[in-house]
Amino acid sequence: MRYDTVIFDLDGTLLDTLQDLADSVNYALNVNALPQRTVDEVRRFVGSGVARLVARAVPEGTPEGLVSKVLADFRAHYVLNMENRTAPYPGVLELLRRLRAEGFHLAIVSNKFDAAVKGLAQAYFEGLLPVAIGEAAGISRKPAPDTVFKALRELGADAGRAVYVGDSDVDIQTAGSAGLPCISVSWGFRDRAFLLEHGAGLIVDDTEALYRALTAE
Q1: Burial code of 18-53, b = ≥16 C-beta within 10 A, e = fewer?
Q2: First-to-last CA distance in the chain?
Q3: How many angstroms separate the CA atoms of 16 and 207, rounded?
Q4: Mind listing the pLDDT tens digit for each residue in 72-114?
Q5: How many Å apart are CA 174 and CA 205, to the nearest integer?
Q6: Backbone angles phi, psi at 105, to 5 degrees
Q7: Segment holding 27, helix H or strand E
Q8: Full-model pTM
Q9: Can 9 be counted among the known catalytic residues?
Q10: Exactly one of 9, 20, 73, 167 is catalytic; which is it?
């Protein structure tokens, strides 16, 4: 097969985390007397890390100190509430089990903060994704390739046989910066038209199509 290593984005690719993210955003906004955001607004804000998520969620012109407070409140709430309404997308667990059984190296690389990435990987994918890397101090987040390269090192995998799978423009850029092919999924936080507009090549609509793409000769 062409690939033996798959690096997955997390939010919008493996897990539908949107409602829990929106709940924590609105909790943090509310306790700081700021206006709430809709779920669709939060959908548009995610993808570039929680600091950017919060910066987009607060009203324009919010003082820097208050933005920092909202971010801290978001983090504290989210880490305790990130499993309330989050769930794997249909077919994801079956896909991961099939790939593991066939000897694929699998990892998560996300712009969600590292503690949450590792916690969600443990809660939903125990034993299936041995490497899970999120945003942390000292390493550039996506679309820089640094976290992808770290995942490849931890897996002991060859970049020449690796592919990146994600649901956003940031994922397409990340794959490009790491020199990996990208498979985009249409079931996540960005639709097919958006993905095409932002340079997607191969787009799949369900996990069976993704499996076929990953295991093609």
Answers
A1: bebbbbbbbbbbeeeebeebeeeebbebbbbbbbeb
A2: 4
A3: 14
A4: 999 999 999 999 999 999 999 999 999 999 999 999 999 999 9
A5: 21
A6: -85, 130
A7: helix 18-31
A8: 0.93
A9: yes
A10: 9
